[in-house]
Amino acid sequence: MKTLSIGTTPVALDMTGIGPTQKVAWTLEGADVRVRFDGGAPTGTTGHLIAAGAVGQEGLWTFEMANAMRLVRAATATADAVLTYTPVIDGRGGKD
Question: Among 10, 57, 5, which Cα is nearest to 37's?
């Protein structure tokens, strides 16, 4: 399991130890974020909006999505967000 602090500068996930056949389960806390899955940098007002408290149980990110994504705190947020994520293999959690 890994955590990522998301502030006003776009950041990427640390994919070390996560293989291309795995998916990534995630939770987001603290603030809304904007995300792009094409490798481009989101801004506080552009990119897909993910609301704080959203849980990815129903829609896991593929390796390709997670590897290309960049996240930034949404413009309306007043504090940094924290994304917790872990690899999943065949519905089971990966190595922590």
Answer: 10
Q: Let me know: does 27 contact 39? Beta carbons within 8 Å.
A: no
Q: What is residue 20's predicted lDDT score, i.e. its pLDDT?
A: 87
Q: Is 96 domain-assigned? A: no
User: Average pLDDT, stretch 16-36?
Assistant: 91
Count of structural domains, the chain: 1
Kindly state whether residue 7 falls inside one of the protein's structural domains. Answer: yes
Continuous segment of H or E residues that includes residue 64 = helix 63-68
Q: Are 67 and 19 in contact (CB under 8 A)?
A: no
For residue 95, being part of any structural domain is answered with no
- Whether 96 shows a pLDDT value over 50: the answer reads no
Q: Is 19 left (phi over 0), alpha (psi -120 to 50) or beta?
A: beta
Predicted model pTM: 0.83
Q: Which residue is listed with tokens 């930034």?
A: 72
